[in-house]
Each structure stands twice: as C-alpha cells, then as structure tokens.
C-alpha cells in the first residue's frame, strides 16, 4: 500500500512539474525573403545574435506553424550584416530544414513541439569563441583608428581594418587574426572608386566595401554578389 501511495505521489509531482513548466519564448526574428522551387521553400530568417540549435529550433517551429501550407521547408538564419543576396554557406549563420519521416536518421534528435524532425547545421562561431576574437589587442592597432572588428565565420578569424592618424595619405590597413592572436593575413588594399568606394584586396580583383559598420566581401568574378557580409562586433 505504501509503495502504491509513493508511486501515485511521484506521478502527481511529475504531472505538476510538466504542467507548470513554462514554454520557452521564441527568440525575436524577422523574415525577409521566401524562395520557392518545385521541391523546396527556403525562408531567410534574420536573427539579432548568435543562437544555440535549440533556440533556432524554436524559431523554426514558429515559422512552420505560421506557414502550415509549406510541406518542404528550409531556413537560412542571417546575423546582422548578412545579406539576402550573398552566396555560399559562409554567408549565413546557420541552415536548417524539416526532414520527411522517410529520411529521418538516428542522429536526428531535434523535434519541434508538433513532433516535426528538424536538422540544423551551424556554420558560424558560437558566442564564446566570438568573444575571444573580439577581445584580441594586437600591437599593430595600438594608437590606430580601428574602423571595426568583423568576425569571419568561414575562416574563424577576426578582420580588423584601421587607419593610422599619422599617415597623411590615410591609407587603409587590414589585418586578420586567428584565436591565438596570430596574424594570418595583412594587407594594404588599393582604394578604387567605380561609382562607389571599394578596396582591392587581391591581385585578381577581389574587393571589399566598408559602409555603416558593415564589411562586405566580393570575388572578382562574383558578378557583384557578395560572398560575405558582416556587421562590426557580430
């Protein structure tokens, strides 16, 4: 009899725990673009900061609930500075999609509240690693005018453009550091004006633009489509 009472009490407490457990709030997001093909609908979702897979799942569940008619849904998560017109995996923070039941693998453990299986790949660095990169203080920027600190999620580096107050030409200098504070590249790009201000960063014509604290990178043969766009401090 005592065992039965204890069991019932445990069941009651378990029920109370789950009944009182508040649902996690969905992080803030905005949708900027929806791209449809015959087999897939891809939604560009802008987020304010770096998130965990669980937080991205909360957003995905809300998007799917609000878009119930979409059967095959994929999501690109973009950080501040990322643009809808970028190309390549390193141009957004993470990519995710809901998986058909027939394609579910044992490694697929994430599900939304409705039981839909969710698969996500986070390309960007997590907040802890970003904090380390942004805190680096190489001697090369001492007493310099730093124009921003830009996290390159593809190369896992921080890009720091700066000018020298003592340089009458006001040339731009760019260094790129890894997490050990080692400089992996250092350039003094050539300034060009093709109707807009840009800096050539390679002999074959690759270039960057720097405007409103956003660093955008272009390949010479990229037809004007950026392969990366980053907001300072992100």
Automatic annotation (TrEMBL):
UniProt keyword annotations, A-Z: Signal
Residues spanning the signal sequence: 1-19
PROSITE patterns (alphabetical): PROKAR_LIPOPROTEIN
The protein's name in its UniProt record: Lipoprotein
């Amino acid at each position: 009899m005592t065992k039965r009472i204890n069991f019932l009490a445990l069941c009651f407490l378990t029920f109370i725990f789950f009944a009182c457990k508040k649902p996690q709030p969905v992080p803030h997001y905005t949708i900027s673009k929806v791209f449809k093909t015959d087999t897939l609908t891809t939604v560009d979702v802008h987020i304010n900061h770096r998130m965990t897979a669980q937080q991205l799942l909360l957003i995905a569940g809300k998007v799917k609930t609000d878009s119930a008619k979409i059967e095959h849904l994929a999501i690109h998560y973009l950080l501040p500075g990322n643009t809808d017109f970028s190309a390549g995996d390193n141009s957004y923070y993470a990519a995710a999609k809901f998986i058909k039941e027939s394609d579910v693998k044992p490694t697929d453990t994430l599900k939304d509240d409705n039981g839909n299986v969710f698969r996500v790949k986070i390309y960007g660095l997590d907040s802890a690693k970003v904090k380390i990169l942004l805190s680096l203080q190489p001697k090369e920027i001492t007493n310099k005018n730093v124009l921003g600190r830009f996290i390159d999620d593809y190369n896992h580096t921080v890009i720091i453009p700066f000018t020298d107050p003592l340089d009458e030409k006001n040339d731009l200098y760019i260094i790129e550091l890894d997490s050990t504070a080692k400089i992996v590249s250092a350039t003094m790009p050539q300034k060009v004006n093709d109707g807009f201000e840009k800096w050539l960063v390679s002999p074959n014509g690759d270039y960057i633009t720097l405007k409103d604290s956003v660093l955008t990178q272009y390949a010479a043969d990229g037809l004007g489509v950026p392969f990366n766009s980053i907001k300072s401090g992100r």
